[in-house]
Design brief:
- The structure is a single chain.
- The chain is mainly α.
- It has helices spanning about 35-40, 125-130, 135-230, 230-260, 265-275, 280-305; strands spanning about 15, 20, 45, 65-70, 90, 115.
- Helix 4 runs antiparallel to helix 5 and helix 4 (about 230-260) runs parallel beside helix 6 (about 280-305).
- The radius of gyration is 63 Å and the shape is rod-shaped.
Length: about 300
């Protein structure tokens, strides 16, 4: 038999009696969402024994549904917003290909009856589904599954919140570290700039001081040269000559003092030194002064004795 889509539904293919709409055994491949939405009085829908593989995300908008039979189809997955069917009380998903249920399944607070037998459910769901051989077991299945999915949803929400908080905390810590690094970098940069500024100012001050001292020395030298009217080399020669003359005179005076205290002992020393010196004008002058001083000392010594 060729499967029918929702657009291929004909009036004589289904039975609509009050609130119950029987769409079973019609080889339907797609859920007739538009027709179901147009017939809001049909709160109980039987879509069992068809070839439905998927449920479109628009289907949970049919919030008027209270009873739904999707058993013996080929449904592999329910839409994530399936929990929007908040008025749903009876749900038959027997003999499909479901492995998991959406987290929104925990929002079906009015669900009183559920059959999930003959589905390749995961191990966690398989433990609480049970055999559902009686109405009471199906009622217990509905309560347990809704409770489990609610707990899983809460647990996942808490886990997401915890991860989000950890990420935000990590971002805050990283932001603080980045801010601290920026502040330290700015401080180092400012400190380096100040040090460079001080070094630059010190160099400028040193250069200025050296230049000022050099200028003053040049001015003083120029002024002295201008006053003396002599060249620097001539002045140096004169100073050297003066120092030598003073040194010789100092030695002569020293010998004279020694002679005053002990003339016999040191007189021959002075005469020997003077005799061996070159006959320069300075030496001659020193010799004459020495002889003069010697005579004066001898004269006054005789008088004192």
């Amino acid at each position: 038999m060729v499967g029918l889509s929702s657009k291929a539904l004909r009036k004589h293919d289904y039975v609509l009696e009050g609130s119950h709409w029987d769409l079973s055994l019609l080889s339907i491949t797609e859920l007739p969402v538009a027709e179901l939405d147009a017939n809001r009085k049909a709160t109980k829908v039987d879509l069992s024994n068809n070839f439905i593989r998927t449920i479109p995300p628009e289907f949970p908008k049919l919030v008027h549904l209270t009873w739904l039979d999707l058993s013996k189809n080929r449904i592999v997955e329910l839409p994530e917003n399936f929990g929007s069917l908040v008025k749903l009380q009876h749900l038959d998903l027997y003999s499909n290909k479901l492995e998991r249920l959406p987290l929104s399944f925990g929002e079906l607070k009015r669900l009183k009856w559920l059959d999930l037998k003959e589905n390749p459910l995961n191990s966690e769901l398989q433990k609480i589904v049970g055999d559902c051989r009686t109405a009471k077991e199906c009622e217990q299945c509905a309560l347990r599954v809704v409770k489990l999915m609610k707990e899983v949803s809460i647990r996942l929400d808490l886990e997401r919140k915890r991860r989000k908080d950890e990420e935000e905390e990590a971002m805050k810590r990283q932001q603080l570290l980045d801010d601290k690094k920026r502040v330290e970098k700015a401080k180092k940069k400012a400190k380096l700039a100040k040090r460079k500024q001080r070094e630059h100012q010190s160099k400028e001050s040193h250069v200025s001081s050296s230049s000022s001292t050099s200028d003053k020395k040049e001015e003083v030298g120029d002024e002295n040269n201008f006053k003396s009217g002599a060249k620097p080399s001539t002045n140096v020669a004169r100073h050297i000559f003066s120092y030598i003359s003073l040194a010789i005179l100092f030695l002569l005076v020293l010998f004279l003092i020694l002679i005053v205290y002990d003339g016999d002992k040191y007189a021959f020393v002075s005469k020997r030194i003077v005799s061996r010196l070159h006959e320069s004008p300075v030496i001659k002058l020193g010799k004459e002064l020495t002889e003069l001083c010697y005579d004066l000392v001898k004269h006054y010594r005789q008088r004192w004795e």
